[in-house]
Each structure stands twice: as C-alpha cells, then as structure tokens.
Design brief:
The chain is built from 29 helices and 17 strands. It is of the alpha+beta class and 648 residues long. The longest helix has 31 residues.
C-alpha cells in the first residue's frame, strides 16, 4: 500500500481553559479563510466544549482522502496538522508493534497514536516539516509543536477574554476582531536592524511565534502554559568523517528521496548555485521521468540563468526560466507585507515569489536548496568573521578597541566604491568582540542610523534595547574555540527561520506551492554542524565538503563559482522614483502612525535621490513599513463590521 503523507495547509484554532462554550464555526472559518491560499482544495472544522480547530487543505498525496481535523476512532484525540512526517512509516511500525491499530496510511494518524504512546515526547521522534495542534479531551491537554528548523510557521495569541488562539499565519489571528493590534516597539527596532522580526516576537505585541524545535502544552482549567524545546542544533564540533564528502552525498540523496513523495507534479528550484544544483541532480536521477526545473534571472554579470541551464541540460530536465528584471518593487512593497502579515525586509522575497509563481504553473511541489549556506558555511560573512577572529587573537583587546576602533570610525563609508575599498565594516568588526563583530555583519541598519529615523516617542520606547544581545547570548552557548560554529549556531536560530524560511514559506504558500528543502533534514543538519571548521571553510572557500560531495553531480566550472543569490539593483530604481518615494514615506499612513521622524525620512530620501549616499536598504525597510501600515488602514473597515456582527 502506498505511503500517505499529509497535505500542505493552513491551520487555526481557539481554546478556552475555563469556558466550556463551543467556539463558533463562523469564527474558525474567518481564521481559515484568511489563510485560504495555504489550502485551496478543501476545509474542515471541529468544535466542542473549550476548543475549536480549523483546517485548509492543499492536496499533495492521498488526494481523495486526508480530511482534517482528524480524530481517533473514539473521538477523544483530534489533530489539525500542517506538514509532512517523512519517517511516519517507521513510527507506524513501532506503534503497531506496541498494539496500536491504524485505519489509514496517513502520516497525520501517526500523530494521534504517537501522542497516546509517547505523550509530549512524541514531537522529538518526528522527522519532517510540521506545525500542528493536538487536543486530548480525556486529559484536557492541548499540544502545539513546530518542526526543528522552523520550516512551517505557527503563531499564537492570548485574547482579552482569556481565549488562546493559534494559526499558521499572522493573518489567521488578525481575522479575530478582538485581537489587540498594538505594535511592538522592540519588534520594530529589531525589524529595522535585521530586516525581519526574530522569533518569538512578531510586529504585534499580542502575537507570538512558537520557536522552531519547541512544543507548547496548555491544559483545561490551567492558567499557565508550558513551553519547552525538543530539538536543538549541536553546540560543539566533532572529529568529522574520514570520507565526509561521500557521507554527505549519501545523506543528501536519502533526504532528497524522502521529500519526493507526491501524487501531484513535482519539480525543483534551480539557480546557478551548488545547493540547488546538487538537489536537482539527485532528484533528477531518482525521478522516473524528466524533472521540471525553474529559474528566475537578472541580466548582467550576476545572471544565474546560464549556469542553471547548464545543470538542466546535464540532467535533461524540463527547464523553464524567466527574467526577473521587470518586477515593480514599489508596487511589491505594498504586496509583500500583506503576504507576510508584517513588514519583511529581504527584497529577494520579490524574485522568490516570482519563481514560486513560475513553478506553480507547472507543479504543486518544488524542492529547494535552502539551508546549505547555514549548515556548510557558504555565506561570505563567515569568511570575514573567521578572518576578523584571527586578527582579534593576534591583537590585544586594548589595541583593537582603541586604535582599530578609531580607524574604523574615521574611515569613510564608501557604499558605491569597489568592494576592496569598503574597509569600514571589516575594521569595525575587528575592533569589536567576537559576537558584536558578527552581529555587525548581519545588521542592516546600525543603532544610530535607525534610531534617527524614529519619532521621539518611539525612540524612548526602545531605550536600552540592543538587538546584538540575542546574538551574543546564542554564540556564548557554543564552543568558544569554534567561532565558525558560533556564527552558524546564531544564524540557525535567527536568520534561517526569521528570514530564509519565512520568505520561502510565505511566498510559496501565497501561490499554493509546497517547497521542501532536503538540506534541512534535521539529521543532516546535526551531522553538518558537527564537522570541523576546516571541512566547511578552508582557504577562503566556503561549503568545502558540499563542493566535494557535488563534484560528481555538477559541472566543474559551476563548483568554482561564488554564491550570487538574487541580484536586483534597487539603488537606481529608488533614485529614479524619488518623488514617489518621498510621498509614500512622508505622508499617508507613515505620517499618521507617529512612529517616525518625518524630517529624517525626507532627508534620507533626498540624499539617496541626489546620489550623495546609497540608502536603498533603509528605504526598502521603510517601504515595507509603509505597505504594512497601509494594509492595516485598509483592514479597519472590515474589522469594524466584524465587531458589529459579533455584538449581541
């Protein structure tokens, strides 16, 4: 009998620990309708005293079945589930050997029986991407869990009347008319600093994210909830594998094959990089027919389409590519916050949405190469961090903070100069201690620059907050003798879930496409993180072991090329649109919000438009805020109608 795995979907629910009323289905439907794009193929609801679940379904496997919420035969345990459990067959055999009787082949049912057998220890046994809520009526317990790396989202909030609400996306919670909508000033500061709001916060004070690898337990009649971690990446490196490249290729091949289960068309995102190229090569060899592959490119030196086409020809894929240069970034600045439910500052969300739309015209599932840079040290900032760390260990702290720090402050910020002349960031990192130096490489807007953009009231609200403290705390959890692992560990808790995986989930699910990243298999991640630093980064070249593992899969020229990523020139685009930019950032919802210093915003736009400075990163973040605030204004009338309909 074929394996049955859960469809991708959107989930939502309400729970009141003390009031036994049934949550109205119309309220649950409002929450799931706000996430309809996550599951256009069907819906399901369950309501009983204290609790209600809602579900939107995107059918991937078991197209005729797989209805959710799903309950045990006696109806005492029920689950609403978003994701896939890749080891569900192994778990099923274990549970059957212990007397459990299954009525389907669905991986969803494994959650029900797994809870009965292992209780809250069950999420630690799962291999997959998932976010789910499970209710045990007899025990009066509600369990929520999110996968180890944060591939699937799970948001929650406590409402003023004592109800607990959860949903896949922020929009599922803002569909509730009584949800408080006060913005979190610290989250806004973090967003301006990093380009995303890191877990567990969101832009709303009332809404929180369950962090990756965590579970949450709530109980009937209990005031407090319990939150604990069930998975964490390693904090120390090991001796490594004698044949690390061979071991990696075998592990990656297994991860790719596990993620190819589908009863619908499946393809792969294909850039000119090693990560997606290796995934595509292994998937193409495992597929029974030519694999569909998809690329978005930009004309110029950074165009990845020729490299992607080279891999496509090698494996005979059905390759489709498009030019991403036509994207209207000013228009997308209004759309992106609506898709994400909050401001999101990574402008590569625009081409990511474009490649997701391209893929969705042909397939329902796509494999991606996400995770390779974090696990195998592919980012340029890792090389800079290791070089800076080597200098730190040669220079006394006093010299670094004094002489080098003074030089860094005096050195001009040459945004438009050749890269080899832009030494200010490097000097600054060397002058700082390790964690603060690394934070400087990921920070988009330094404190002085971003606080100058805020209104006096907003500046006062974030006094004493320092986004770098999160990075320092995470890096201190790791081996102090392994600065590379420290940086990777910090990224796995911040940038990967907050930026990369959020971007991929929201843009793909916006067009009802499921994306699966084999490189984020938890066992592969743990194995890769424990490799010694020289296996990942050596001679100034990152992803060393992945390059060696991919040597038999990819053309030699591609293996030697450095990472490019989506390349879009925002600076000139914004310079040409100076008047429109000025109007949007200094009027309308931005002026009415009271969050920003309008004179500072005018000066920022004018300096960029004149060519005196390149403020494209800051301007994009501010456009995200403008789009988000405009969306809030547009939603206000519908919220007022919902309030009126809910009134007795």
């Amino acid at each position: 009998m074929p394996e049955r795995v859960a469809p991708m979907c959107g989930i939502a629910g309400l729970f009141h620990p003390f009031q036994p009323a049934h949550p109205p289905v119309r309220t649950l439907r409002a929450m799931t309708d706000a996430q309809r794009h996550r599951g256009p193929d069907g819906e399901g609801f369950h309501a009983e005293p204290h609790l209600g679940f809602g579900h939107r379904r995107l059918a991937i496997v078991d197209l005729a079945g797989g209805a959710q919420p799903m309950a045990t035969d006696d109806g005492t345990v029920i689950v609403t589930f978003n994701g896939e459990i890749y080891n569900h067959e192994i778990l099923r055999r274990t549970l059957e050997a212990r007397g459990h009787v299954f009525r389907s082949r669905s991986d969803t049912e494994v959650l029900l029986h797994g809870w009965k057998e292992w209780g809250a220890d069950m999420p630690a046994r799962l291999v997959g991407m998932f976010a789910f809520a499970l209710w045990d009526r007899g025990a009066g317990r509600l369990l929520l869990a999110r996968d180890p790396l944060g591939e699937k989202p799970l948001h929650y909030a406590w409402l003023p009347d004592g109800r607990f609400a959860f949903a896949s996306e922020i929009g599922g919670l803002t569909a509730l008319p009584d949800l408080p909508r006060r913005l979190d000033p610290v989250a806004l500061d973090d967003f301006l600093a990093l380009g995303y709001v890191p877990d567990p916060a969101t832009i709303y004070s009332a809404i929180r994210r369950l962090p990756p690898g965590h579970l949450m337990l709530l109980g009937r009649g209990e005031v407090r909830s319990i939150q604990r971690r069930f998975w964490a990446p390693p904090r120390t490196a090991g001796a490594g594998d004698a044949d690390a490249a061979g071991a990696l290729q075998r592990r990656l091949d297994s991860a790719v094959r596990a993620r190819m289960m589908a009863d619908v068309p499946l393809g792969a995102f294909l850039s000119g990089g090693i990560d997606s190229g290796a995934v595509t090569g292994l998937a193409a060899m495992a597929a029974g027919e030519p694999l569909a592959t998809f690329t978005i490119g930009f004309a110029g030196a950074a165009d990845e389409r020729p490299d992607a086409a080279m891999v496509a020809r090698r494996y005979g894929t059905r390759h489709v590519s498009e030019d991403g240069a036509a994207a209207d970034y000013l228009a997308m600045a209004r759309q992106i916050p609506r898709l994400f439910g909050e401001p999101f500052g990574d402008h590569s969300a625009v081409p990511t949405l474009a490649v997701a739309r391209l893929a969705r015209r042909h397939v329902t599932v796509a494999l991606s190469g996400d995770g390779g840079d974090e696990v195998f040290a592919g980012y340029r900032r890792y090389r800079f961090h290791m070089m800076a760390e080597a200098v730190r260990r040669l220079l006394p702290a006093g010299v670094r903070r004094g002489a080098v720090g003074a030089l860094a402050r005096a050195y001009p910020k040459l945004d438009r100069a050749p890269r080899w002349l832009r030494a200010k960031t490097t000097l600054t990192e060397i002058s700082l201690d390790s964690a603060l130096g690394y934070y400087g490489t990921v920070c988009k807007l330094a404190e002085e620059r971003r606080r100058a953009l805020l209104s006096p009231a907003q500046r006062a609200a974030v006094t004493g907050h320092d986004p770098s403290a999160r990075f320092a705390a995470l890096m201190e959890e790791c081996d102090p003798e392994d600065p590379l692992l420290q940086a990777q560990y910090a990224d796995l808790h911040t940038y990967l879930p907050g930026d990369i995986l959020t971007k991929v989930d929201r843009t793909s699910m916006a067009v009802s496409l499921e994306v699966r990243p084999p490189l984020l298999d938890p066992d592969l991640v743990s194995w890769g993180m424990t490799l010694p630093a020289e296996a990942k980064l050596r001679g100034g070249v990152g992803k060393r072991v992945l390059r060696e593992a991919a040597a038999s899969l990819l053309p030699p020229d591609l293996l030697q090329r450095r990472k490019r990523g989506f390349a879009a020139e925002l600076s000139g685009h914004f310079r040409a649109a100076g008047l429109q930019l000025r109007a949007r950032l200094t009027g309308g919802p931005m002026a009415e919000s009271g969050l920003f210093d309008l004179q500072a915003l005018r000066q920022l736009v004018d300096r960029h438009a004149s060519g005196a400075a390149d403020h494209s990163q800051a301007l994009w973040h501010l456009l995200m805020m403008e789009g988000f605030l405009a969306g809030q204004q547009a939603e206000q009338p519908s919220r007022e109608v919902a309030h009126a309909e809910a009134a007795p």
